[in-house]
Design a protein that fits this description.
258 residues; alpha/beta; Rossmann fold; OB fold (Dihydrolipoamide Acetyltransferase, E2P); five-stranded parallel beta sheet
Length: 258
């Protein structure tokens, strides 16, 4: 007999909504133990790999990795985890959820909706339809990004010593978190951007820039090669920079088709 569901993670980038979901879960499902509360896709992916929870509540639209991308990676890093997508009402998405028999939770979250979701999860009791999830992710790809998302960043203004540089985003090899700021690395050298890396994730083109570590975003066009070691971690070689970049093990799933 399968063990009852007992653990989960919650990923939602809006603090108040995340707190509300956690509080609602405590009331609707007292036996459930929340192992991690995540504010973006990167931390959600790392939490999945670390904790391998029974359930993951994933907001579809998050900065950096979307909930859909995290769910796709979960098939590798935590295949037994049941996925529940948290989403605002969207007829296309809801129709896909119903056809795909995959868990979902509509915003705004109400006690009635959460109770129904909990009952569905408990009825499945750990069963996970990988094929259904894969088909759903492919169908939902167009709704993973917000329709009102700003145009991707084209230029940035960064400082190098006393000099202020205007840098074309396409020329950036990678960004690395530096406390409250971000280091920008190009073929010419480094500069400092007075924007936290989390904010950058919301304005970079997600088809070109990918997180490979919680603190690192790489330009896919700047990658010369990716090597995986025996531990599952990876190393990125760059076309225009001599240093290599570490890829944490959960993020290696993003490179499985490269």
């Amino acid at each position: 007999m399968a063990e009852p569901i007992t653990t989960c993670i919650v990923a939602e980038d809006e603090t108040l909504l995340r707190q509300a979901l956690v509080e609602c879960l405590a009331q609707a499902w007292p036996e459930l133990h929340i192992l991690a509360e995540c504010e973006d896709g990167a931390s959600a992916l790392e939490a999945l790999a670390e904790h391998r929870p029974d359930v993951a509540f994933l907001d579809i639209r998050m900065p950096g990795l979307t909930g859909l991308e995290v769910a796709a990676a979960a098939a590798q890093v935590s295949p037994a985890s049941q996925i529940v997508f948290v989403t605002a009402y969207d007829e296309y998405a809801i129709d896909a959820f119903e056809r795909g028999a995959v868990g979902y939770l509509l915003k705004p979250i109400t006690a009635e909706r959460l109770s129904a979701t909990v009952q569905r999860l408990q009825a499945r009791n750990g069963s996970n339809d990988a094929a259904a999830l894969s088909a759903l992710l492919e169908r939902l790809a167009p709704v993973g990004r917000a329709v009102d998302a700003p145009e991707p960043l084209t230029w940035i203004t960064a400082s190098a010593g006393r000099e202020t540089r205007l840098i074309l985003v396409d020329d950036v090899a990678y960004f690395r978190a530096d406390n409250k700021y971000t280091t920008v690395m190009t073929a010419e050298g480094e500069a400092l951007l007075r924007t936290p890396i989390k904010e950058l994730l919301t304005v970079l083109d997600p088809t070109t820039f990918k997180q490979i570590h919680r603190s690192t975003i790489v330009n896919l066009r700047a990658i010369a090669g990716v090597v995986r070691d025996d531990s599952g971690r990876g190393t990125v070689r760059l076309k225009t920079r001599p240093e290599t970049l570490a890829v944490s093990a959960p993020f290696m799933t993003l490179f499985r088709h490269m």
